Task: structure prediction
Amino acid sequence: MIASQTATFPQGAVAVLTIDNPPVNGIGSGVRVALGKALEEAIANPMIKGIVLTGSGSFFSCGADIREFNTPKSRQEPSLRAIIEQLENSPKPTVAAIHGAALGGGLELALGCHYRIAQAKSSFGLPEVKLGILPGAGGTQRLPRLIGIGPALEMVAGGDSIDASQAQSLGLIERLVQTDLVSQACELALEASIRTEGLPRLSRAPIGATADSKVFDEARKLAGRRYRGCIAPLECIACVEKTLTFDLDEGLAFERERFQFLVNGDQSKAQRHLFFAERAAMKPPKVEAELTPIRKVGIVGAGTMGTGIAMSIANAGISVVMIERDQAGLDHGWEVIKGNYASSLSRGKLSDSDVKARLALISRSLDYAALADVDLVIEAAFEDMGVKKEIFSRLDAVCKPDTILASNTSRLDINDLAASTSRPSKVIGTHFFSPANVMRLLEVVQGTRTATDVIGSLFAFARKLGKIPVLVGVCDGFVGNRMVSPYTREAHFLLEEGATPEQVDSALRRFGMAMGPLQMGDMAGLDISWAARKRMAPTRPAHIRYSKVADTICELGRLGQKTGAGFYRYESGSRTPISDPAIDVLIAECAREAGVERREITDVEIIQRTMYALVNEGARILQEGIAQRASDIDVIYVAGYGFPAFRGGPMFYADTVGLAEVLATIERFHDRHGELWAPAPLLKELVENGRSFADL
Ligand code: T1G
Result:
């Protein structure tokens, strides 16, 4: 856990303590005990003139071991705070020698040292806020004393990392070194050991550049926009604000108390669940065969999805060939891509050379022969099986035998598509989310004959694109869109029963959803789900309740934002939904025709009907093996459907409420609303056995 060596120089000996806890040098109880002991020995050893702290592998340290939170191990002495005080109060100079990332408790350790030097490629961050907590080992108190309130506030409340040159310009590190990091750190320790002026201890340092309350108000506003509904950012800001009025000990006590409040709260448990859920989802299935390196990709279709996918691939430095049926379509797609990059350039997100490099990676053609040498093709054409089969048979003819053929369909049958080719084992679904160059989620759809090496290759490719690949099986709408149907269904039923679009959407926004289902429908375009409902109509049992509200709106040509009206009205060029009394009349008429009695609808009912519809369908999906883990469903909903991270995803949320309570409510809805609310067998089974989705 801690490798301890003594480096001897003519000027004296230095103890080099290396945190060695792969893969990320997490600081768990074992590391704390070993480090505390090694520090004690080094400080007591008269031969030792200085102490250097560093990390093995590719990280200095990525902070406290998150797995130990809320377990007895997290309370085992010495605490991280005690270790940091040992470093800071050491009579011998302590130097942090940083390479790779110094995150969370790892950066707090470095702040306890008297000096910090780092390699050029290092990064520094306090990402705790993204886990629903705050830096609990002095980061909110020592960092402002070192770099000033403004920059410290940004790092603590934002959670993003800074690079080594930013760290140096802020004074977070004393020296930036290219090579010999540890020996240069030893030299610095020896230099400091003979200095007469005292060792710099942040605990005694006055606050750096101070700030007035406006800075904190601004930070709270920003946190409210960036982390809507999350409490941790506000606690982070409150801790940094205390540095203006509290001394270090009072500040540390306040920080500790707020840390305990957060780490024992549901929000942080939800966000930590997601941290590990994302990493579990991104693990590809075991693969025997060699993976296909994807160096060149073909995109069929230069529409909204095709252009977004092409950009996300070029952004990863991989060359793309974009194919379209006609020149006009191709030119339009190219203009969209150039336009998006131009706006990134104007917003300073990309440099001119970045944009040039990415555009140079995207070539266009009307000729399928241009796809003869690609490793992967992603078809992003019109959502019609006939169109897709025609494209796949052309691809089957022109592409290399080992080229992977993927479809960006959002709900159609991948097995059916695969069967229309001579290479069903090479056919897979890659369901990107709009805008594809922004959204991180990628549903990787495994067909019954898709080879595991093809899945493995797609997972590796997705990680290169910075996407979160989640493996799902074939059914209508896969996981995400299949669950959206009952969620939206209930929203439409609630309208008929007396709620207004504003009431439904605002109740879900208060719950934490990025957007309510009706506004989301308007944004995505109501024609997409209308087409799906029309496709399903022939097989829909007549005795099952069906709301005509959305169909009626579409029949009026109101397809959402793109037509200026849907469930709401939109001023031209604006995305702000405006209530439309005509819709209330339309809904009342649909209710009358359907014989639905209208009544007072509470926000609680709106949340229960929509959320439990998601959970119930999620349980069916799990039982059918369409999703491998309940946590995969959580990742899909948080990364792809605007589900609040501070609730952990629909399945985690259900566990938080308690499955017995969820099932009881669903059974009440079943009694009242009929078959559509039949409880999922898996849900009943879990409740009968006192288990939760997390136990699966
Ligand atoms: N604790 C426990 N496990 C961790 C971990 C951590 N802090 N960080 C990573 N892992 C595991 C991860 O689950 C995975 O495991 C493996 O390491 C590789 O990670 C007191 C309270 C560092 C940027 O928030 O952001 O300090 O899946 O796949 O893509 O104030 O991991 O292989 O079994 O993500 O190269 C603050 C969290 C903690 C940093 C590397 N620190 N980690 O990314 O690898 S709270 C963080 C990351 C704290 C103090 C407070 C990333 C990474 P497995 P990976 P990666």
User: Anything to note?
Assistant: The first helix runs from residue 29 to 44. Residues 23-24, 26, 62-67, 80, 101, 103-105, 108, 127-128, 131, 133, 135-137, 139, 276, 279 surround (2S,3S)-3-hydroxy-2-methylbutanoyl-COA (CB under 6 Å). The longest strand covers residues 2-9.
